[in-house]
Specification:
The structure holds two protein chains of two kinds. By secondary structure, chain A is of the alpha/beta class. Chain A has 13 helices and 13 strands. Chain A is flat, with a radius of gyration of 41 Å. Classes of the chains: A alpha/beta, B alpha/beta. At the A-B interface, strand 1, helix 1, strand 3, strand 4 and strand 5 of A face helix 1, strand 1, helix 2, helix 3 and helix 7 of B.
């Protein structure tokens, strides 16, 4: 007995299949991407950030092997006979090819047998969603940002400026030094004092050669000498001083601010706003994958612009005309007061139905080109309209020509186009 | 009388050890000869990993295992996961997995089933003895995984994947059924692989030398010589040795898949016997423990409940029916063998004159060692088991507009029924019989395969797809002729 070896493997890694799973996803990326982009179209706006069920037609993932097809003469043995005897015949079901038993059944949850379904995680979902996309100008900003530094504590040093003196550390060092240098002598002093007391208490010896007075004198001299020595140990010395040390560390660009600008004038319907919202959400998720901290600023405008919260941004209605430049001006003011371009990566997305007072459109393009574009990483404009373009579009086209790297514009006519347009705007450009 | 090993249902390592000791004692009483056991306790996730690598403890990476994994985990999450005691590895020591979620009676059942049942089957059955080398398999799998990983690094994941895909498509055609193979061993393999690299290309070049030799050019009779001169059923071996354009590393991959096919070959032919044997023994061993007073009534109730579920055979018209349950059939035959030895009836004496009344233990061991499913059923399926299972044979001819019941569990039917059921487990009946017929050595180098049909059953719809894989490996045109009684009925081509 005892030949059996019992092993606890539970702590060994699970996920042994992780690589194979990844291989599978890699092989069927095409299918999965399609499922993901369909999911973006169909999902409610708020729950884009979860995994997704992907189905692939079974025939696409089949591993083919030689096997028999239908037809010919075949025999099979089955269990559970009740009434038949040899020679009985049973009519074939009409139209059936005669091999139907057990195949092609629908499963109880409605998932067809001819589909292979599985779940991808939220992480994988987002990866597929943003696959091949690139944050515009991310590289440039990173380089530029190495000019910003953080100072971080890096221990203590014995050299430094008085402003960085660490009192506690220094005194602790001094105390230790005093103990180290004076301890032995103080112990000796205590010993001698004990002897002295003992001598004084004891009755005097008559033999002058062993006179107490001489001995006391000698002890007292020794004690005085030692005490003087101890006293000479400085309370604090130069070598005790400790200074806080700091190191310069380049500050990575980890924060971004995203400006959402939207026209809420009477001509923008709720359907328009929903399209805009989806677009903004995509941008937000996209930024979130790349930055640690993201601020979102919502600016809505009709004839005047206002910074609002998300709820008001998407759901309150206004009437009246449209002056786009008001929003651009407000955005500029907010950048100046709160989001220094040295510290923030600034992205902006503007959604509008293209309506603007004609007089205002040249103003907009000038504002954009002169004061906003130099500050932002990327400015995306989406025009939500099936109609012909108006003045604003044509003005913006000029900007796109002059600043193709930081400005992009596209037209969306219906919700199905949001994702393709988004992809187009953020596509990884060939170097 | 003994005291029970345990009374609760929670397991501990100590209790598992005690159960194993007692089961081992019982197994020894019955003369079960096993490899040493290694019992590994794993979590549910790990069990899914094990499932998805088709039971190989170490496997090379391939998307199809990922697919398997996704399928398994989906099934598991929905609560459809099958039996947890199915995974046991034909290796020395014999590795069996216990899921940590199992109760103590379940753990005992798995140990009896896998570590003593399957284990003794692996060690005793002639197919396993001939085709696999239990002490070398783990090393070989490690060798294969490393080799595949190395190729991926050198030649690219996609390139390796393509070759493996194609090999997998032909994996069932990687065995010489009638030749005894060389056992696989990793160290030997690594050494030989070096040599092969050097010699192989030369060999291939010899075959494809285009300068005609005078004697072969003598007349039309000589020119009709085929290559290979005899049809070859081992497609992968033929490709490995003869495909004109494969790189050495690609040949090596073909070889790896071929060797794995060989490793699984006995399992494909002994499912009924293997599961029947393991089930028979978990049943017998745990009852023996009960007799000895080592397990409680509660333990036996839980055990019997699982056991009953395992050997349940839904009738053909049940929504749960998916063919004959190999556990049921195998368990029934082994159990009935014992009965025939111990309490033979007149019928048994007539049908099994050699074993009726003989030593049952010797008889079941003899059956386990020397048969595969087909011959096992042919030899040992008794009228009683056919009656118990109410077996019947039904014929489906596409020329008729009805099915015909050809035999049932009655006196005139027993022999036919048994024959038909046995044939159902014959690999060459289950899978199309396809062999290498000819290579146009002097001409376009095309490869021609031949399919011999049985009862006019044609090839399935995936055939073209498989041919594409064969073409990828062969590198030149591949033809497949489907023959019925000597006449070509259908041809497939790629490209």
């Amino acid at each position: 007995m005892g030949m059996t070896h019992i092993v606890d493997r539970r702590l060994n890694g699970k996920n042994k299949s992780a690589v194979n799973r990844e291989r599978f996803l890699r092989r069927y990326r095409h299918h999965i991407k399609k499922a993901v982009s369909e999911a973006v179209h169909n999902r409610s706006i708020t729950d884009i950030e979860r995994g997704e069920r992907v189905t692939i037609p079974t025939r696409d993932i089949q591993e083919p092997v030689f096997h028999h097809g239908q037809g010919g003469r075949r025999e099979a043995v089955h269990p559970g006979n009740r009434e038949w005897v040899a020679g009985d015949t049973i009519a074939k079901p009409p139209g059936g090819s005669g091999q139907g038993s057990g195949q092609g059944r629908a499963s109880p949850d409605g998932e067809g047998m001819d589909e292979f379904a599985f779940q991808i995680t939220q992480e994988e979902f987002l990866d597929f969603l943003f696959d091949d996309l690139e944050l515009p100008n991310l590289a440039r900003k990173k380089l530029k940002d190495t000019e910003a530094f953080n100072y971080v504590r890096a221990g203590f040093t014995s050299q430094g400026v008085p402003a960085k003196l660490d009192v506690v550390r220094s005194l602790r060092g001094a105390h230790a030094r005093r103990l180290g240098l004076g301890g032995a002598r103080k112990r000796k002093i205590r010993e001698l004092q004990k002897q002295l007391e003992a001598l004084k208490a004891a009755p005097g010896d008559l033999d002058p050669a062993f006179s107490h007075d001489d001995q006391i004198k000698a002890l007292e001299d020794e004690i005085a000498r030692l005490q003087a020595n101890v006293k000479r140990i400085p309370f604090i010395d130069e070598i005790d001083l400790r200074y806080r040390q700091h190191q310069k560390q380049p500050k990575p660009a980890t924060s971004a601010v995203m400006f959402c600008l939207m026209d809420v004038s009477g001509s923008m319907t709720q359907a328009h706003k929903d399209i805009a919202k989806r677009f903004f959400i995509l941008l937000y998720l996209f930024l979130k994958k790349n930055y640690k901290k993201i601020d979102v600023v919502f600016i809505r405008h009709h004839t005047s612009a206002k910074e609002v919260d998300e709820e008001e941004f998407f759901y309150s209605r206004e009437t009246g005309g449209t002056i786009v430049s008001s929003a651009l001006k407000l955005m500029h003011r907010i950048i100046e007061s709160r989001y220094s371009p040295d510290e923030w990566n600034i992205y902006a997305a503007q959604a509008s139905d293209g309506d603007n007072w004609n007089d205002d459109s040249p103003v907009c393009s000038k504002l954009l080109a002169d004061s906003l574009l130099p500050l932002v990483q990327y400015y995306a404009y989406v025009e939500i309209t099936p109609n012909d373009h108006q003045m604003l579009w044509h003005e913006y086209e000029k900007i796109q020509e002059s600043s193709p790297h930081s400005f992009a514009m596209q037209q969306i006519a219906d919700p199905g186009e949001i994702y393709p347009v988004f992809r187009q705007l953020f596509e990884r450009k060939a170097a | 009388m003994n005291t029970p090993v345990s009374t609760g249902s929670e397991w501990t390592f100590e209790l598992i050890r005690q159960y194993d000791d007692e089961i081992a004692k019982c197994a020894a009483e019955f003369g079960l000869d096993t490899y040493p056991n290694q019992v590994e306790v794993i979590s549910a996730e790990q069990m899914m990993d094990a499932y998805s690598s088709v039971g190989m403890p170490v496997g090379y990476h391939h998307w199809s295992f990922g697919k398997q994994f996704l399928q398994t985990s989906k099934g598991y999450e929905r609560g459809q996961m099958g039996l947890a005691y199915e995974i046991v590895i034909n290796s020395n020591p014999c590795i069996a997995y216990l899921m940590e979620e199992n109760t103590l009676p379940m753990q005992a059942l798995v140990i009896a089933h896998a570590s003593y049942g399957h284990n003794s089957f692996f060690k005793g059955n002639y197919l396993f003895r001939t085709w696999t080398d239990a002490s070398a398999i783990i090393d070989y799998l490690v060798f294969a995984r490393n080799y595949v990983a190395e190729c991926e690094e050198r030649y690219g994941v996609t390139e390796v994947e393509e070759i493996l895909d194609s090999c997998h498509a032909l994996m069932n055609y990687g065995v010489d059924r009638y030749k005894r193979p060389a056992p696989i061993s990793a160290t030997e393999e690594a050494r030989r692989q070096k040599e092969r690299e050097e010699y192989q290309q030369r060999r291939i070049n010899d075959l494809w030398r285009t300068i005609p030799t005078p004697e072969e050019d003598e007349g039309p009779v000589k020119r009709t010589h085929r290559y290979p001169s005899e049809p070859q059923e081992n497609l992968l071996y033929f490709i490995e040795k003869n495909a004109p354009l494969l790189e050495t590393w690609q040949r090596e991959l073909v070889r790896i898949v071929r060797k794995l096919g060989q490793y699984f070959y006995p399992q494909r032919q002994t499912q009924v016997m293997n599961e029947g044997w393991a089930t028979f023994w978990h049943y017998t061993l745990l009852h023996r423990m009960y007799e000895k007073g080592l397990v409680t009534d509660g333990f036996m109730l839980e055990f019997l409940q699982s056991h009953t579920a395992v050997v349940y055979q839904p009738p053909f018209d049940s929504p749960w029916y998916s063919g004959i349950n190999p556990y049921t059939l195998g368990f029934s035959i082994f159990t009935d063998l014992r009965r025939i030895c111990e309490n033979p009836t007149e019928e048994d004496r007539e049908w099994f004159p050699d074993i009726a009344g003989q030593d049952w233990l010797e008889t079941v061991h003899f059956a386990m060692r020397n048969f595969k499913d087909e011959s096992f059923i042919q030899q040992f399926l008794s009228p009683k088991v056919m009656r118990d299972l109410k077996l019947f044979a039904i014929e489906n001819d596409d020329l008729d507009d009805h099915y015909t019941v050809t035999a049932i569990h009655d006196d005139p039917g027993y022999r036919t029924l048994r024959e038909k059921l046995a044939r159902q487990y014959n690999l060459s009946y289950r899978e199309p019989n396809i062999q290498v017929w000819n290579v146009d050595v002097r001409g376009d180098r095309s490869l021609t395969l031949r399919h011999i049909t049985v009862d006019r059953v044609p090839l399935g719809p995936e055939t073209e797809e498989v041919l594409r894989h064969a073409h990828r490996l062969w590198g030149f045109e591949v033809h497949l002729e489907s023959l019925d009684e000597g006449a070509v009925m259908e041809t497939y081509h790629c490209p």
